[in-house]
Amino acid sequence: MTRSETEGICVEVKTRYVGGRALPEGARFVFAYTIRISNTGDAPAQLCRRHWFITDAHGDVREVEGEGVVGSQPLLHPGESFEYTSGCVLETPHGAMHGSYTMFRPSGACFEALVDAFVLADPQAIV
Prior knowledge:
Pfam families: DUF525. The chain is mainly β.
């Protein structure tokens, strides 16, 4: 599990390997990650955007941006948390992700809650 904290927003990530399969165009390795975002600060913050960098074992980087997470833009008051599970498909048995969430305060302030790099790995693969 990885843990990052920025301006009172704590992000914890757990990953798991779902499985792999060979397809005519190549191998696909599927990973799931569960993220818990907690407001440990003293002011509300709303998650508005996500920005991910996904790197496979070849060093190829894919960038993913968009509004919210899993169709939601949660507003977190102090002491509240939001948890979701999503997934990622790689062409290699291991890789990594890192990124950030754009957070807005009711005061109009905006900041990036950083998500430190976390590993995506098939436990049977030799890294």
